[in-house]
Amino acid sequence: MQTELALLNQEVAGLHRVVSEIGGKMDVVIQMQLQMQRLQDRSDRLDTEVRRSQESNERAIASIRADLDSAFQVAHGARDLATRWLNRCVGGFAVGAVLFGALQWFVLREITDYKAAAGRASELERQVQRLECTVTGKCK
């Protein structure tokens, strides 16, 4: 009986040790579960932050694209305006060149006409002098 009691005490001590080990392992498992829960919560918060950051980035990119489109529209408008004014200036210079050429042609024609008239006038002057010389007898 005593051997049975000693054996029973040993088994109870072994059982106590096993229960204690199970308790320790349960504590470790509970700590692991708590750690996993904390990590899951942190992961959820990080996911939320990532989503917010992505949405914020998408809004910023959309705003930048809108600003860029506006800038391109302004640039295209300015380029079109500059092109129109350049075309007007080129057209004005072309018209001016044609008018200047016409003016030169007119002036040169008038100069030619005046030279021809001067030549005829000097010829007529000589003829008048000959006639005077013939009529009056006074020749120079």
Question: Summed up, what is this model?
Answer:
This protein has 140 residues and is mostly helical.
Describe this structure in words.
There is one protein chain. This protein is mainly alpha-helical. The protein has one domain. About 95% of the residues lie in helices and about 0% in strands. The chain is built from 1 helix and no strands. The model has no long low-confidence stretch (mean pLDDT about 90).
List the keywords.
140 residues; mainly alpha; transmembrane helix; membrane
List the topology elements.
Layout: H1 2-136
What is the mean pLDDT? 91
Q: How many helical elements?
A: 1
**Please, how many domains?**
1
Which structural class do you get from the secondary structure elements?
mainly alpha
Keywords: Coiled coil, Membrane, Transmembrane, Transmembrane helix
